[in-house]
Structure of Replication-associated recombination protein A:
Amino acid sequence: MQQPLAYRMRPTKIEEVVGQQDLVGPGKIINRMVQAKMLSSMILYGPPGTGKTSIASAIAGSTKYAFRVLNAATDTKKDLQIVAEEAKMSGTVVLLLDEIHRLDKTKQDFLLPLLEKGTIILIGATTENPYININPAIRSRTQIFEVHPLSGSDIKAAVKRALADDKRGLGAYPVDLKADAMDFLATATNGDLRSALNGLELAVKSTPKNADGKIEVTLPVIEECLQRKSLSADKDGDAHYDVISAFQKSIRGSDADAALHYASRIIESGDLVSLIRRLLVIAYEDVGLANPAACERTVMAVNAAKQLGLPEGRIPLANAIIELCLSPKSNSAMTAIDAALSDVKAGNYGDIPQYLKDAHYKGASKLGHGVDYQYPHDFKNDWVKQQYLPDKIKNVQYYHPKDNGKIETALKEQYLRLRHSAGH
């Protein structure tokens, strides 16, 4: 039985990895490890289909080390022992251990000394946060890298490569992939390349040739093979982003009915990931300090929707959407951090005051670090007049509070009172 397209198209060298260029691109950390053949064990965490296995496969291919794949949940200690014996006999083995967050203590205790010696280069893969779900003993012996959903352009590049490859891919098939079908394939899979490639293969192999001898892969064909519907009936390649944009702008404009309409189009497409990601952005970007409690409840609604999935997940999300629409709005926190970032990027900052510098190590006081620092909790109301910004920008104001809602009005009063007391 032939392996799925996503499996066949796994990269054999680091240069073939799609996306994650902050890790595998020229001059980046994993690329440097490969070039120097100085590999260290690592944990890759992120959503499914984002390239964790591909990175491990590419590392092994580029370094010519043996590559083995095990699952921490289903494979046994004996399976690990077989890999360890192979490593002793033939040299270093790169072991991809999927679902590493489910590694039990027996298997962990067996692996630890092998990681210490470098006999096995462990690449753990997980969709769970390793800082919460992976044992500290494993974490301390690995580097942790986060992988992100692939962009639409990443997906398109991988699809084009698969269509052109006549050995591992679909190059032997006379495929005519329509532009709107390609756009939908790139966006509807939410950065999951595995889903995109396997959906493409099903579409190609299940579609008969037309009168011109071509396998015409249209938008309806891709929709059927992915079991997702396009967000817009106009088949516009930008429809995905247009609906997401209209959704945010409707909430920002306090139109609950419009927001629910656009949310429904996203839900009907099956794109829960894009909906909840955008909803979180909206909560903190557009409502923010005007109603922090609504932001917290949005996070709770999103977590509930993740647990429930669709269709039930629509219910907590509807609660959050309506509340955000009808809530007072403020973007003051976003504009404040953007203003601060703009200064930093432009190099518009000075030296940290000496008394604010780290003073916990021996000899710090000789450098003047921490000297004359005033500890606010030693003073009345736990506050003392003291300069915190560098001299160069000591009077700068990034946060400009608004009066939109009781919470930010109260924060504004406190902020202005503190600035006045500090002499600004």
In short: Residues 86 and 93 are 8 Å apart (CA to CA).
